[in-house]
Design brief:
The chain is mainly α. The protein has a domain at 1-145 and 170-191. The chain is built from 33 helices and 3 strands. The protein has helices at 3-13, 20-32, 83-96, 100-115, 122-125, 136-146, 164-169, 173-190, 194-211, 219-232, 236-247, 256-272, 278-295, 301-316, 320-338, 343-358, 362-380, 385-400, 404-422, 426-441, 445-462, 468-483, 487-505, 510-525, 529-547, 552-567, 571-589, 594-610, 613-631, 638-651, 655-672, 678-694, 697-713, and strands at 55-56, 62-64, 67-68. Strand 2 and strand 3 (67-68) form a beta hairpin. The longest helix has 19 residues, at 320-338. 44% of the residues are buried. Residues 1-81, 117-146 and 723-741 have low confidence and may be disordered.
């Protein structure tokens, strides 16, 4: 069992076998060859002087040569000396002095005495080299492998000495063995060799169970360590079993803080399950908090740890105000106890930043991300996964602010850090996809496609071939192909995504409906309206089966079907679909949501097509009122609605009102566009045409002159200026709310 441990110590030391320490081990072998030579080492059991080199036989008896002893020795004689305590305690002292080689030496010699194997000391079976070169910094580095941030999943690393009142409990070989095994397990923990540590604790556990209340080592501590090892190595079921057994002793254990630590650990397991059990996690954290508040000061770091863990559960449940409250309480304590530059402070700072980000407070989120970087970068280095992740979120904030130059700079830093820290990894793919999104939004489809394809290659290398992230990237690539008019390529990517989804989820999963809607949209844009209608209806059926009628995705499908029916000339059926979609959206969103305006706009267009100008105008005006409330009076999306209202008034001979609406269009365009933009030229042309139709020649000349001047400046042919004709709120518009999905 301990061979791997010996190799680990050898690795830590970097020393060659056969050096001074080998001489020391050989010296100890000489002293163990016979009990008669060990004047300074008395043993627990009285033996005849000729019983040197006792060995254990297969039947559990001890022998010396051909002489058999009729029974194994179980009890320590009352007049025995204290060799085993001395060896054990010396091992503890060496462990605390970071001399792990010598500590292991003492512990193994102690076990050899207890087992009657003094003629076979550990060094003959488990050769090790010196651990004297292990420094405190190396031990700290080893510990950092186990954790970087404190979740409170802490094992017991306090060794046990055989002295004082505890020595009185050591009334048998088994109990002495229990202590030594426990200490060896702790030594393994300190050396970051979990498997060997688990072996030691697992061998100690049945002895502690048998000893019951008279056990010199807490069975709770043993179970706690087994649980922590299981957790670290992803064996959550094994860890849970150990922790739950430990909690059976909660009423008789004097150290209630250890019970609190175990409760916190169980909460962590529930939190980290593939399907987190947030209710049980919160219950365990709550019990741990109750004990700690009763036994510790209000500003103790262990209270901050539980607060941070509770905050993570609320964050997972999307209860962001409650999560933020816990994080800020934890942060206040950690800053006070640990200082402002501690890594655990950085962890809570990051958590708070993420919560602010989710709440839409981008300024606060950015401040906290920056503080995390200030603390963590010097400790973790620039090439660390958490540094890469934080840089990604900072880039995301600049991205959301449309500060694209800063966003791309931070994305590139995140990508470099992620590649250095993780290599080919899903986080690297995530960064690449976000970079692709940014380029897509800027209309740079070539760069977007490059990043998406690079991300797809990473995902295919590290993820299962049916992983949902792959379908997202395929869909993004399909979107670019659609935007660039490469409809056949777009269909291929969408169909590949659909194939993965069908194999992963079955043919009735709601995600299937999203991809079907994308495919239907391609057919719509190819003017294959019958095929588009068929696929949209399949998507609608899936969504209705999954969600029922009162669902926004169902309403979206109905809107898309209404648009296709309009193209097919089925105006009555189109109106029916729009009205059903409107009813659903109003019941869920109320009357002033942007999506309500989309449906009203489409309904107005049908009225226009039917020649029902009054009904059309009423719906357009309702649309405009909602858009002003939802988007503000200066938003570019108001332009289209204003144009149609102006055109209706123009057709009805209400020229002054038509000019007023086109003038508002011009005002919004001039706020967000260069003066020579063709859209501004078109609006001025429309105003000029209305003035001409109204007989206002001077106003017409003024507007036309301005339009002509801008057209020439922008390189347009002034002869092409005209009043825009009627346009339907087409699916070709790049508006998420009007999309078929």
């Amino acid at each position: 069992m301990m061979a791997a441990l010996a190799q680990t110590i050898h690795k830590h030391n970097g020393c060659v076998a056969g050096g001074p320490v080998r001489d020391r081990i050989d010296f100890h072998r000489l002293r163990c060859d016979g009990l008669e030579e060990m004047d300074s080492f008395d043993v627990y059991h009285q033996r005849n002087r000729d019983s040197s080199s006792l060995t254990e036989t297969d039947d559990g008896k001890y022998c010396n040569g051909h002489t058999k002893i009729n029974r194994p020795v179980h009890h320590i004689e009352t007049n025995a000396a204290d060799t085993v305590p001395n060896l054990n305690n010396a091992g503890v002292v060496m462990m605390e002095s970071f001399d792990y080689d010598l500590a292991l030496d003492y512990f193994w010699r102690c076990l050899n005495f207890l087992q009657g194997n003094c003629g076979r000391p550990f060094s003959s079976t488990f050769p090790v080299s010196s651990a004297r070169s292990i420094t405190v910094s190396q031990v700290s580095k080893s510990k950092s492998i186990l954790r970087e941030y404190d979740e409170g999943m802490s094992d017991c690393r306090t060794p046990v000495k055989m002295e004082g009142h505890l020595l009185a409990l050591v009334d048998s070989l088994d109990k002495a063995t229990l202590i030594v095994l426990f200490n060896m397990g702790i030594l393994c923990l300190r050396l970051d060799v979990d498997w060997e540590a688990n072996e030691c604790f697992s061998r100690a556990l049945p002895i502690a169970r048998a000893a019951g209340l008279s056990s010199p080592v807490s069975i709770v501590s043993i179970l706690r360590n087994i649980g922590c090892i299981g957790y670290r190595n992803g064996q959550l079921e094994k860890a849970t079993e150990a922790f739950k057994e430990a909690l059976q002793y909660r009423d008789i254990v004097a150290d209630k803080l250890e019970i609190a630590a175990i409760l916190n650990s169980v909460g962590l397991i529930y939190f980290h399950l593939p399907k987190p059990n947030t209710a049980r996690a919160l219950r365990c954290y709550g019990e741990a908090m109750k004990i700690r508040k009763h036994r510790l000061t209000s500003n103790h770091k262990d209270i901050a740890t539980v607060l941070n863990n509770i905050g993570r559960v609320h964050f997972l449940k999307e209860e962001y105000p409650r999560a933020l409250e816990k994080y800020l309480d934890a942060l206040r304590i950690r800053r006070k106890v640990l200082g402002t530059d501690h890594l655990d402070v950085a962890a809570t700072v990051y958590n708070a930043g993420q919560t602010y980000h989710k709440r839409g407070d981008l300024e606060k989120a950015l401040q906290y991300y920056q503080e995390f970087m200030r603390i963590a970068s010097p400790i973790l280095g620039q090439c660390h996964r958490d540094v890469a992740t934080t840089l990604k979120w900072m880039a995301q904030i600049y991205h959301e602010r449309r500060d694209y130059s800063r966003a791309i700079s931070f994305y590139e830093d995140a990508l470099n850090a992620g590649r250095s820290a993780l290599g080919i990894h899903p986080e690297v793919a995530s960064i690449l996809n976000k970079m692709g999104n940014l380029h897509y939004e800027r209309g740079d489809f070539k760069k977007a496609l490059s990043k998406y394809k690079e991300g797809l290659n990473v995902e295919r290398a590290v993820l299962h071939h049916l992983h949902p992230n792959i379908t997202v990237t395929l869909t993004n690539i399909g979107q670019i192909a659609k935007q660039t008019g490469e409809y056949r390529a777009a269909l291929e990517f969408y169909k590949e995504a659909l194939d993965i989804q069908s194999k992963s989820f079955g043919k009735t999963h709601p995600d299937i409906a999203i991809t079907l809607s994308n495919i239907a949209l391609i057919h719509y844009q190819n003017k294959s309206y019958a095929k588009s209608l068929e696929i949209y209806q399949d998507a609608l059926r899936i969504r209705r089966d999954a969600f029922g009628d009162c669902n926004l995705d169902v309403a979206s499908s109905l809107n898309s079907i209404g648009l296709v029916l309009f193209k097919l000339g089925m105006h009555d059926m189109s109106m029916q679909s729009f009205l059903e979609s409107l009813k659903t959206r109003r019941s869920i969103l109320g009357n002033e949501h942007r999506d309500i305006a989309i449906i009203l706009y489409n309904i107005a267009t049908i009225h226009m097509e039917r020649g029902e100008d009054d009904e059309a105008l009423r719906c357009y005006e309702q649309t405009l009122n909602i858009e002003r409330i939802a988007l503000g009076s200066d938003h570019a999306d108001l332009v289209l609605t204003l144009q149609y209202i102006a055109q209706v008034h123009q057709q009805n001979g209400n020229f002054d009102r038509a000019v007023n609406y086109f003038t508002e269009v011009l005002r919004i365009q001039q706020l967000g566009m260069p003066a020579s933009n063709p859209s501004i030229v078109d609006t001025l042309s429309n105003i000029a045409a209305i003035h001409m139709e109204n007989g206002s020649i001077s106003n017409m000349m003024s507007s036309m002159s301005e339009a002509t001047r801008m057209a020439i400046r922008s390189g347009q042919d002034a002869s092409e200026m005209k009043v825009n004709g009627l346009r339907f709120y087409d699916l070709a518009l790049n508006s998420k709310s009007a999309a078929a999905a």
